[in-house]
Task: structure prediction
Amino acid sequence: MIGYAAVVQDFTFLCGKTLAALARPPWYIRETIFQMDRIGVGSIFIVVLTGLFTGMVLALQGAVQLEPYGATMYVSRLISTSVVRELGPVLAALMIAGRVGTGIASEIASMKVTEQLDALRAEGTDPLQKLAATRLVACVLVIPLLTIITNGVAILGGWLIARLYLGIDSFFYWTWAFEALRQRDLVLGLIKPAVFGFLIAMVGCYSGFSSRGGTVGVGVSTTQAMVSGSILILAFDFFLTKLFMAIP
Result:
């Protein structure tokens, strides 16, 4: 139990130091843009596939559940609200955590094993500013955009099934899909990915900076980033949903 408390404490300290590093120069704008391109463009294919099949499965399953009530034509409402509120942000974050979070952890852990972090400090460069802060900003800015892509593709995938398999009129589908969404849903659908981006970046950085044991430790850190990041994403999804439900 003490070990878990120490991990939480160290993770909290790392988050605080990284946020403090954002407030002082240098800000490494070029490195941040590079990380945004690396995270964003590199993850588009994954989130597009995730969104497409999520929307198609929702359409199929939703039609089965609504058919006994004669409400199959309203499946677009189910798809749009489910995707924007929950499935889009969570599934996109989990996919990105598997690709980006583990990449951050393995990269920083490898730099630690090869003593590149010590070299940065010897040159007067703060590794938190150079490595952690840039990746944090990139994740927080890019992951909401990737989530928007996921949501759009998921609704499009649902339309493909609704039009080709269920025979629902396209105008009716899109009208009810957007009619079901509220401003509250859109706000929650953007806040969640930003929080998830923070978690993915910081868990990856923490796993990398805390790596030990040589090359074996790199693999352990990578696995730790994936598992811990996924658990935190699911946990924070619950708490954020509960928080927004409590707000009138």
